[in-house]
Specification:
With 209 residues, the protein is an alpha/beta fold. It contains seven helices and eleven strands.
Length: 209
Amino acid sequence: MKNSLLVFGTKNFINSLKEIKEYLDFSLKFFHNDIIFSDAVSSVNALLIDSDVCNDGKYINLINSVNKKPILLVSKPGVLKKCNYTHRITSPLLLSDFNTWIVSSLTSEEFNKNSSVTIKEYTLDKNEKKLKKNNLIIAITEREIQLIELLFNEKKSLSKNSLLKKIWMYSDDVDTHTLETHIYRLRKKIFAKFNDEKFIINSKAGYTI
């Protein structure tokens, strides 16, 4: 499925993109005055902004009100505007370069968003394979990341069989201490570095975070 961008800019900027939109690797939606801005933003992956609209305080306020969405600013060399943005591209560019830049910007944004998860007072960095708390860090394995993420995302206790199925793809009749061994080692690392005995909790219902 293509990424969808909301185009917000001058009439010339919008018209130029309408002419090339069928050649792009992402889809475009164009903002008009009769569209509610918050609704338009919620329906796309990112905003593509023409820097010329940042001359108008009304538009600056709209753009700067956007949260948790990448803002891709297109501007001329040396021109810096008051609008907030997460990525900036200098125009003019070849169509192929423009395509590549947009796609890579959105990909990196999505990767960064998904590579770090806040769990309690900890940060799980899936890219670096580390669990962090304040200035303390431990290295964790790919399997430990899967285990932590699953327990955190489920928001409820998971039984041994359920965890073995979801992570190790084991059947119900498999008798193994694989899960207990992984949880024991992970708890041991967490306690040694963070002095936390309650990161993973087990009860009759199973395991939870």
